[in-house]
């Protein structure tokens, strides 16, 4: 089939790579315009653009999909189908209706659970044990199109948003090709989503990032995993913001030295492993942290460098 691809972040590259290496003809890559980044605000191309150019694939970056020259360009290509994965803009109706097979969308969840902006993060926060990839027919409603194919994968206890996204991206690369091949052979029957099972994955907010130590240890641990590598869960110590990149439930019981410690209190310090922090249930061990304007460090390095002691408070 004659395919155009729309995507932007690193996450989308395995899907793009698989299409390039397949029997299908990749006509064009559409991605967002370069944006200022870094301290010097240097114009930086999106990862998909860099990869496509390295592969010799034509790239366009229309500021808006209402751009008439873009419309004429893609009409003249006579595509059979479009593939979208994390493009970053709403697809207009005229483009949905243009290809013979419409546009298919890659969504990193088992729809209808976790429609919306942050499906990977919300699945980890909710302590889901299973997630996956859905290939749907793109429709005007948010992530509500008919399901063409799905694949499941477990969420491991040590998974972060970064590791899970990589895993889902690799699954998506194979699933998109299976979908293109199946549609071409007429072997795929679209399936309506069960509206009774819809759960929305709202954008990550400032409130999601603040650690509330009075919550159960598992809730905090999942919050930390879900927000790694960005934006990161944070707390405060001595008026300084502290990002927490890894927190675990200790495998052993410790003598905390407090009968009923206030949540956020340092209840024990292992000089080789780091501080144990009281939560609404059992203590959590801070394994990796990052003080404001500093590099990431181990919990043990943090305790030594900032001279923390049992009884000090975070929050």
List keywords for this structure.
27% strand, 17 strands, 315 residues
Percent of residues in β-strands:
25-35%
Helix/strand order: EHEEEHEHEHEEHEEHEHHEEEEEEH
| Gross morphology | elongated
Mean pLDDT: 95
> Into which percent range does the helicity of residues fall?
25-40%
Radius of gyration: 23 Å
**How many helices in DSSP terms?**
9
For the biggest β-sheet, the strand order reads 5-2-1-6-7-9-10
Strand count? 17
State the secondary-structure class: alpha/beta
Distance between the termini: 55 Å
Largest beta sheet, briefly? 7 strands, mixed
Low-confidence stretches: none
Structure description:
- The protein has 315 residues and is α/β, with parallel strands linked by helices.
- Helices cover 26% and strands 27% of the residues.
- It has nine helices and 17 strands.
- Helix 1 packs parallel to helix 6.
Short characterization:
The protein is an alpha/beta fold and 315 residues long. The protein has helices at residues 13-20, 47-54, 68-77, 93-96, 119-125, 161-185, 206-209, 217-226, 299-305, and strands spanning 2-7, 25-30, 35-37, 42-44, 59-60, 81-85, 103-107, 113-116, 130-137, 147-154, 199-201, 233-237, 240-248, 266-270, 274-277, 284-291, 297-298.
Layout of strands and helices, then pairs:
Blueprint: E1 2-7, H1 13-20, E2 25-30, E3 35-37, E4 42-44, H2 47-54, E5 59-60, H3 68-77, E6 81-85, H4 93-96, E7 103-107, E8 113-116, H5 119-125, E9 130-137, E10 147-154, H6 161-185, E11 199-201, H7 206-209, H8 217-226, E12 233-237, E13 240-248, E14 266-270, E15 274-277, E16 284-291, E17 297-298, H9 299-305
Parallel strand pairs: 1-2, 1-6, 2-5, 6-7, 8-11
Antiparallel strand pairs: 3-4, 7-9, 9-10, 12-13, 13-16, 14-15, 15-16, 16-17
Helix pairs in contact: 1-6, 5-8
């Amino acid at each position: 089939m004659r395919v155009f691809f729309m995507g932007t972040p690193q996450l989308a590259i395995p899907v793009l790579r698989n299409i390039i290496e397949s029997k299908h003809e990749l006509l064009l890559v559409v991605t967002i315009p370069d944006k200022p980044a870094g301290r010097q605000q240097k114009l930086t191309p999106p990862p998909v653009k860099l990869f496509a150019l390295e592969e010799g694939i034509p790239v366009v970056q229309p500021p808006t999909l209402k751009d008439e020259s873009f419309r004429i360009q893609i009409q003249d290509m006579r595509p059979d189908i479009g593939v979208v994965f994390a493009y970053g803009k709403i697809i207009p109706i005229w483009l949905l209706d243009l290809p013979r097979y419409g546009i298919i969308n890659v969504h990193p969840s088992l729809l209808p659970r976790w429609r919306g902006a942050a499906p990977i993060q919300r699945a980890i926060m909710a302590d889901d044990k299973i997630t996956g990839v859905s290939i749907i027919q793109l429709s005007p409603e948010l992530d509500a199109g008919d399901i063409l194919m799905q694949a499941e994968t477990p969420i491991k206890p040590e998974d972060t948003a970064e590791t899970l996204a990589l895993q889902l991206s690799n699954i998506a690369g194979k699933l998109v090709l299976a979908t293109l091949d199946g549609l071409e052979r007429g072997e795929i029957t679209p399936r309506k989503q069960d509206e009774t099972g819809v759960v929305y994955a709202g954008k990550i907010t400032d409130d999601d990032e603040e650690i509330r130590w009075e919550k159960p240890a598992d809730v905090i641990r999942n919050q930390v995993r879900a927000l790694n590598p960005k934006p990161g869960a944070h707390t405060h110590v001595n008026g300084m913001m502290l990002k927490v990149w890894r927190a675990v439930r200790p495998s052993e019981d410790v003598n905390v030295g407090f009968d009923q410690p206030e949540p956020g209190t340092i209840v024990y310090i292992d000089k080789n492993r780091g501080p144990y922090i009281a939560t609404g249930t059992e203590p959590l061990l801070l394994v990796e942290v990052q003080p404001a304007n500093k590099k990431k460090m181990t919990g043990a390095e943090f305790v030594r460098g900032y001279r923390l002691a049992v009884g000090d408070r975070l929050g």
